[in-house]
Amino acid sequence: MISIINYNAGNIKSIQNMLKRIGVKSMICSSAEEIEQADKLILPGVGHYDHGMKNLHQSGLIEILNKKVREDKTPLLGICLGAQLLGNKSEEGIEKGLGWIDMDVIKFDKKKLSSSLKIPHMSWNEIKINKPSALLEGLNNDSRFYFVHSYHMQPNDKTDILTTTNYGYNFTSAIEKDNIYGVQFHPEKSHKFGMQLLTNFSNI
Amino acid sequence: MRRIRVIPVLTLQNEKLVKTIRFKNPNYIGDPINAVKIFNEKEVDEIVILDITATKEKRQPNYKKIEEIAEEAFMPFAYGGGITSLNQIEHLFKLGIEKVVINSALATNLNLLREASNIFGSQSIVASVDVKKNWLGKQTAYTNSKSEKINLPLFEYVKKLEENGAGELFINSIDLDGTYLGYDNVLIKSISELVDIPIIACGGASKITDFYEVMQHGASAVAAGSLFVYQGAQKGILINYPTQEKLAEEVYKKL
């Protein structure tokens, strides 16, 4: 059973549809009680960084999430904005992030992109695996995922980098530290590659 | 390897999948859910589904059908047709789609674009422009399935769409729709020189090399209808999509 955190800032239905397709049970959690019982968590997220953090604060779920993720070591997967929120801060806004991963979120450096590479980075792209991980079982450097983002993660501790992706330059496309995972791309919209990744997460 | 998005466009008349030629003569293709299931197996990059009679019939989007399609769409899914309000857009996103395509409403309400972009993020808002030549060859934007003309000159209009928060422009050539005559490369080039946002080129695709050509003229993504629902000179109905190997060989590796 995977618990999807509902804080009104994510495309929950797509994630649910994909989990259903791969035969993984899921529930949508909006209360501390529900999250307390979770044995695996997904933090979705679409939209502006500050909007996401404000909604998380308003949801009143941050305290229980801190306990689950930091003390109970419950596996958590952040997707897109949900991955970015795991860090310290973002150039997109002024709100502080969850601070579970020592990283900042920065805007794509337009100077390093040729004029044909637009921002947002909106396309399918490949991952380059930086370290072995249960999350990437059965996936390789040819695996491709769907990306939509203008900002990207930049971990201060390079050992937290799980995959990189090239868009004008190499940026961090997934991170892993202990029980915390974050992917910039959308596994729920990435065909068999996303199915594999979400199946792996359900087996962790 | 740089990839571009190669997008099948499915046109619906309410619940039925059809394909037009120059926006006329809709030919019945089949059931949209079946088509999406096949496109899943073919691992398409993205899918655009347009309900081409919603505005004409003053209908709401067919939420039930859209939800059913979304349940089977494991690729990004953009929906257009009959969208006139923020409430509708919010409802559509809750059904599990990624993007909305807005066209006719923009003729009278550019605010919708601005507000939708602010609330949902511009990456999820596609402004669609149907372009048609008059007898002098001058190109103008049309709405409501080519029945109404946009008064602004075409290039001013697309610039306005960008300024008002469109995340992408879906540029569809009415004259080339269903004709297999190739994309309107000249049009795409002119628009791409005016705007910074990604352009999805649509209308006229006949083969994979057309994708490469229109990319060279400034498109960020390519879309096609007939090419992905018909096969051969007899236009037998066959949902199809090029393999990744073929796309890499004939398009991506050349970019």
Question: How would you describe this protein?
Answer:
The complex is a heterodimer of chains A (204) and B (255). Chain A is of the alpha/beta class and 204 residues long. Chain A has one domain (2-203): 3-Layer(aba) Sandwich (Rossmann fold), CATH 3.40.50. Chain A has helices spanning 12-21, 32-36, 49-59, 62-71, 81-84, 191-203; strands at 2-5, 26-29, 41-43, 76-79, 89-90, 103-107, 121-126, 128-129, 144-149, 151-155, 161-167, 169-177, 180-183. Chain A has an 8-stranded mixed sheet. A 3-stranded mixed sheet of chain A has the order 5-6-10, with no helix packed on it. A two-stranded antiparallel sheet of chain A has the order 7-9. The longest helix of chain A has 13 residues, at 191-203. Chain A is globular and about 50 Å long. The mean pLDDT of chain A is 95. With 255 residues, chain B is an alpha/beta fold. Chain B has a single domain (5-254), classed as Aldolase class I (TIM Barrel), CATH 3.20.20. In chain B, 31% of the residues lie in helices and 27% in strands. Chain B has 9 helices and 14 strands. In chain B, the strands form 2 sheets. In chain B, strands 1-4-5-6-7-10-11-12 form an 8-stranded parallel β-barrel, surrounded by 5 helices. The relative contact order of chain B is 0.16. The chains are: A alpha/beta (204), B alpha/beta (255).
Largest interface: A-B, 32 and 33 residues
Helix content of chain B: 25-40%
The end-to-end distance of chain B, rounded to whole angstroms, is 9 Å
- What best-fitting shape of chain A do the alpha-carbon axes yield? globular
Compact summary:
The complex is a heterodimer of chains A (204) and B (255). With 204 residues, chain A is α/β, with parallel strands linked by helices.
